[in-house]
Amino acid sequence: MRSVTRVLGATPALALSMPAAAQVVETAGYPAAAAGDGATTAGYNLSRWAEDWRKLCDPAKRDDPIDALKCVKLTPNGDVYVTLSGEARLRVNHTTNPNLRDSRAHRHDIVRLVGGADLHIGEHLRVYGELAHGGISGVELGAPAATLRNDVAVQQLFVEAKGEIGGVDIGARYGRQEFTDGPNLLVSQRDNNTIRFTLNGVRAWARGKTMRIDAFDLKPTQYGDLGTDDDVIDPARRFSGVSLGFVVPKTWVGGAKLYFDPFFWRRRNKVGTWGGRIGPATRYYLGTHLWGEAGRMTLDWSVNHQWGHFRDQRIDAWQGFFAQTLRLGAGKSAPRIGFHADYASGGGGYGNGKLRNAYAPFGNNIYYSYGLFLTPSNLVAVAPTLSLSPTPKLRLSTEYQRAWRANVRDAVYRANGQPFAGTQNVRDARIADVARMQAVWTITPRLSVTGRYEHLIAGPSLTKAGYRSSDFLAGWISFRF
Q1: Is 317 left (phi over 0), alpha (psi -120 to 50) or beta?
Q2: Which of 75, 180, 194, 195 has the fewest CB within 10 Å, making it most exposed?
Q3: Using an 8 Å Cβ cutoff, are 385 and 337 in contact?
Q4: Strands 237-248 and 211-222: what pairing?
Q5: How far apart are CA 254 and CA 301, in angstroms?
């Protein structure tokens, strides 16, 4: 999680590249919004189990009948209760030159329905379950992925136990779950999908007031598209590691509210792919993440080194992500200007020697392209950003991104990690310019409308390999409780 989010409209409550810093809730222990479970805004979180609605167990604090669903008491004293949650999202996507080829435009009419139940059994035990449905129709659908079309999926199902020892909060979660403890460009729920990205296994933690440690061992969910029986644990991939967190003392940096999160991860894949070759890959990540607020400045900086092996090829790759904004006024709704500058090494995907292509485990790819045409592998990207709120409920964001290849002897890669075929034979560095705009109208904390537009101007790295420019237009309405 981060207080400076990089989610490019992944949730209707968030603006484009660098919106106002998410609320950091101070607690008796480690700050809740910095604990790796995502940011909570107006009570809502992308991961619904991270929300805390205990105050609504008091009927006097409820505003309407829906509030009663947040605390359904199962025992007279209320020590056992259920929190119910749900979301309905209706969305339309329109993409010209899909896959950057000269072809008929795609139109996708997408429906997401999600229902969750969070059973609290006393202070130390909980069980969370979540079902999701994804529907899609439209024009030129092709073969929709199971993350877009799925009759019903068990999106999450886990048991969690927690307690306190000597002033340190400890806990463990086992089962199917979302994982966001790290830079958003490396790990994300991928809310742009209809069915979100989840993993299966165990995550455990210990959190004091200024320090924390999280350890995890997880395997991705391999979704089918029929029902709950074909959503299985992926046997070929495994993601494990340790993440740390430190509250930077305010006296060190003039009262700034900053967090420093080092991490060491390992990703194993029995069917890794580079340059048309398939084989086992083990990739290690050692990195740091510094983020937070310093007066009117927000920042989100992260660097990581990657090493390991793909088949018989050594991996040696780097990524650096640097985003910052400046608030042009005293109020939190004041306009913000900023920029992000990002680097992901490339090379070796189509040759001998070291594999220098960086790779994100399951990051937020819409940060670079709403149409999912770019990813942080063999990429250099720079973009000035602007966000403003003409009214308290309307937020507008825009950016203009320029993108190049870090290594012209390697391909241009898209969001699924696959190359644009033929680009490895082009020696121009320039990939594309990407102009983007987004508008989010938060009618109420439960109801929002989002509009999104992107124009990708293909550069010579793409056009000389036969690829075209593209427009992406999307709009959706989301209701959640």
Answers
A1: beta
A2: 75
A3: yes
A4: antiparallel
A5: 19
